[in-house]
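Task: complex structure prediction.
Instruction: return structure tokens for all chains below.
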Amino acid sequence: MNETELIAALSALSESSTNRKILVGIGDDAAAWRPSRSRLSVISTDALIEGVHFTRALGNEAIGHRAMAANLSDLAAMGARPVLCTIALGVPRDELHEGVLEMYAAGARLAREYNLTIVGGDVARSPVLMLCITVVGEVRPTRMKRRAGAKPGDLIATTGALGASRAGLDVSQGRVHLRDGLQDVALRAHCFPQPRLAMGAWLAASQSVHAMTDLSDGLSTDVLHMARSSGRRAILERVPVSSSALAAASAQGMDATEYVLAAGEDYELLVAIAPRAFRYLNSRFTKRFGSGLECVGRFEAGEGGAIVGSSGEVPLKASGWDHLRRGDSAGS
Amino acid sequence: MNETELIAALSALSESSTNRKILVGIGDDAAAWRPSRSRLSVISTDALIEGVHFTRALGNEAIGHRAMAANLSDLAAMGARPVLCTIALGVPRDELHEGVLEMYAAGARLAREYNLTIVGGDVARSPVLMLCITVVGEVRPTRMKRRAGAKPGDLIATTGALGASRAGLDVSQGRVHLRDGLQDVALRAHCFPQPRLAMGAWLAASQSVHAMTDLSDGLSTDVLHMARSSGRRAILERVPVSSSALAAASAQGMDATEYVLAAGEDYELLVAIAPRAFRYLNSRFTKRFGSGLECVGRFEAGEGGAIVGSSGEVPLKASGWDHLRRGDSAGS
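Output:
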């Protein structure tokens, strides 16, 4: 039984309870329910476990920041505004509490930046360091975006170039050394990723945005996930490679496109946009955020996905993380 | 730095963000916020970690049930109705997925029984089995009960006799053997505790109930916690010992009262009730639920607590679980 099968079995066990207030259940970036007529609340959980999702070499501040960023990014992907979170901490017996506080402070700092209030949690002994964060956000019912919803003909875009976080991982683990500027950019992208909350809320306000998710598992995995959720076929025509990813791939003799297709944790957003609206939307986006959307392909009728190379279309395979095989955490 | 100091330091890091929608933050059974004018949502998180909160000897069904019960009990303590939950699972590499499904199914069964919808979660590799459940409930603003709120003169009551779960733990770990009927009762109380949701909602509807919490950490610890939160002094006059706890304590040559004061995980509710209202409230409670409230003492002005023994009042000490020292999980 692999991760997909286990999650399918777990989902099947969960679905027998039907609650008409629940609008989005298992399988999207976050779940959504309707606490009142005019509002939707959304919720998402991520567990991060030492030795699986991070090593202590990353440093306490980066561990805390990344855990919070991953959760905030799930809210961004729904177009939601952060409201509150709970944090459960597993702390090893010999752990210095100062280190735990440093980690927690970094998460709290990022939370504060986005008006996310930490309302509670849990502290328990654990064999390894463990953080489980649950975030709750709020979005107007007409604005919420899901992973499903892409239409044939929709353009696929990202909110930025990709691969810097993977390059930072390679740098931090000593696999490559980049020239000074890029080295810092890559490490910063890996240790202190910025969730795209303002971009998510802005994109969510447009009716031309049909589907949205965050790029946590790698472009190939996340595009195929959106295609499957939407019942469409994804055609990737262009992969936006960040300069640090280009340098890190070439330093290791790797193909930059392959490198980025499998590179997770950039936390840019992936959106499906009505083709007629793209140009105008992108010009407004550029004015608002100082950089444009990166058009990476389009959806068509069908299933699966392909990537257009020099020799025509080849099947697109998920080269990102299978959470149980490779260790990353699945979104809710 | 002990648990209390660590939690205080973590709380201090969390409080700098002020959000007027948040009504209850860190420190109660659950946090509460106001998603709309007429409703309150409440949220609580518990992490359960193998080797700390449970051993595999408990069996998969009991592990799943207990994790869900602990979380539902936090909603009961706020007087809230369950709405939804997320479940993050940490699964060891060599774990049989069938066992994980059995555990999850038991939690899902209890969730369904109380109309709690599982809306998402996370599955990740972990060195030991780990469950982190976050529950969300709903309560009318005028009905929500907190741990704080007890007034001088209030009677302290529980929704039932205590200690059966501890007796079941002793039985399951081979420390005692009780006669057949009690053996089963104790094991059942330990493995499949029932959260007091109907009682919690019923008690929450009464304005004579001034404070409420659930008995997860032991009577002494939880009473002192309510006293401290309310700024009152607790006087315990009578400890309601369940028959299995009486048998288990006496089989081990232990004082039954001491045994119960330190016995956690019964998940009965602890309430502070206006003294004038107690008799009538208790008669209605008895009619509704088939058994009465157990009056255990009273609050008075002051701080700390005492227990009335044969030789007068002696100071009441928290003999329940300190989460970091003894391993149980703190409520949010």
